[in-house]
Design goal:
There is one protein chain. The chain is α+β, with helices and mostly antiparallel strands and about 450 residues long. The protein folds into two domains: about 220 residues, 3-Layer(aba) Sandwich (D-Maltodextrin-Binding Protein, domain 2); about 200 residues, Periplasmic binding protein-like II (D-Maltodextrin-Binding Protein, domain 2). The chain contains 22 helices and twelve strands. The chain has a five-stranded mixed β-sheet. A three-stranded antiparallel β-sheet has the order 10-7-11. The protein has a two-stranded antiparallel sheet with strand order 4-5. A hairpin with a 2-residue loop joins β8 and β9. α12 packs across α21 and α21 packs antiparallel against α22. About 45% of the residues are buried.
């Protein structure tokens, strides 16, 4: 079982040795890297299975640059997140070479995909052909660790993200409320906004069953709860019950109609259109929200406030992986290192993609971009908080993590819809989750 809770000093200590070995291994390749040839795989084609999200939209604007630099043809198939995973499962179960590269959330499916043997270990490729200046040890140690299974590095981080609250400063001012300082304050602020301006949704967050654990998990941890204790599901603990009751209550009393169908797309659209006062959604959605330039001037950003258990934000990110069944792993690795290079991540940062590289976040052009708008600086401050204090405990830390998300989502939605009490919902969830845990 993987422990995804991180402390910056602990991470530094753990990774100093690992990255030292890595640096030694890569430095041995420096003499060969000095004459690194970006055209080494010219004429080859690699297929990339991508999810529709801000990172994909941002990087695809430079697709022509990659093809010109390398001579490699990049064939891209883009689907919604769930459709992408369905497509990937079909291809991988067939052990097909149809997909060379794919996006993955190792916090979600990493253990499952690694156990199935679907990921290719990237370390041999990194040691074999790596461009000068790439520097794996510049990437977030926590995210690299999260993408490492049984010593194999299965993905390179594309971004760093976690749920944050986007809030309308103009509505807060009009309704004479301040940003919530605790979880209990959220309902108090939402109630005042609902009374002051009933035309807007006071508080919005994910309600779609497989998607809501991403946001619910922060509230659970801040309440002092956990998904597991002593090898068993722990949702019926007092902290777990309070988290279920609070999250479902916020959505029921202050959320939008049909919230049980809301994922990031619906939440972002609602907020971008000016129809929600608070939206608890991924930091990765900043660029999409800011497509409405009016939001640049009336938006504040903050982490979910603390609860009785403190403040424990979720920090995850997408990674780029190479299929174990790819016929062109070397050419695919060229795309991986181009897309995740310091230069490219600094460019993508200007599109609101929070960089997992230290060098990108300190890039002068990026700093200038942040300084141009207060909301960008608040967003970066929230990202820094996530990076320093976050964990990736989204749902149960088991290979059946995706299935466990459905169980959590069902528990919340049944309370929200009034089909089960908190006690009934958590009992059902614990029983189903324990059955999954027993399969490990």
């Amino acid at each position: 079982m993987l422990d995804h809770k991180w402390n910056s000093k602990f991470v530094t200590a753990v990774f100093a040795g690992a990255f030292g070995i890595l640096a030694t291994g890569l430095s041995a390749q420096r003499s060969m890297a000095d004459d690194f040839n970006w055209k080494a795989h010219s004429g080859e084609t690699v297929s990339f299975l991508a999810s529709t999200n801000p990172w994909t939209s941002a990087v695809m604007k430079y697709k022509g640059d990659f093809e010109k630099l390398t001579g490699i043809t990049l064939r891209v198939d883009t689907y919604s997140e769930e459709q992408m995973r369905q497509r990937l499962v079909t291809v991988m179960n067939a052990r097909s070479n149809e997909v060379d590269l794919f996006m993955t959330q190792v916090s979600r499916e990493g253990m499952q995909f690694a156990a199935a043997g679907w990921y290719r270990d990237l370390m041999p490729l990194a040691k074999k052909e790596t461009a000068p200046g790439y520097e794996l040890d510049d990437l977030s140690p926590a995210l690299v660790k999260a993408a490492t299974f049984d010593g194999a590095l299965v993905g390179i981080p594309l971004n760093i993200a976690g749920p944050v609250i986007y809030y309308r400063t103009d509505i807060f001012e009009k309704c004479q409320v301040s940003p919530p300082g605790t979880i209990d304050d959220i309902a108090k602020v939402a109630a005042k906004i609902k009374k002051c301006d009933p035309s807007v949704t006071a508080f919005a967050s994910r309600g779609l069953k497989p998607a809501l654990p991403y946001t619910f998990s922060v509230l659970l941890h801040n309440m002092g709860g956990s998904y597991m204790k002593d090898g068993k599901s722990n949702l019926c603990s007092p902290e777990g019950k309070k988290a279920l009751r609070t999250y479902a209550g916020l959505l029921k009393d202050y959320g939008p109609p049909g919230v049980v169908n809301y994922n990031f797309y619906q939440l972002t659209s609602l907020y971008r259109a000016g129809r929600s006062a608070m939206s608890f959604e991924s930091s990765n959605e900043l660029s999409s929200i800011m497509e409405n330039e009016q939001r640049l001037g009336d938006t504040g950003v903050m982490p979910l406030p603390k609860g009785p258990g403190g403040s424990h934000p979720i920090t995850i990110g997408w990674s780029l992986a190479i299929s174990k069944f790819s016929s062109n792993p070397d050419a695919a690795w060229y795309f991986v290192q181009w897309a995740t290079s310091p230069k490219m991540q600094a460019k993508l940062a200007l599109a609101g993609i929070a960089p997992p590289r230290k060098s990108a976040s300190s890039d002068q052009a990026y700093k200038t971009w942040l300084d141009k708008q207060p909301v960008r600086k608040q967003w970066q401050q929230a990202i820094d908080f996530l990076a320093a204090n976050g964990n990736s405990d989204v749902a149960y830390p088991i290979a059946q993590n995706p299935v466990s998300r459905q169980i959590i989502g069902q528990a919340v939605d049944s309370i929200l819809l009034g089909t089960a009490s908190v006690d009934e919902a958590c009992k059902t969830a614990d029983e189903k989750a324990d059955a999954l845990i027993a399969q490990q």
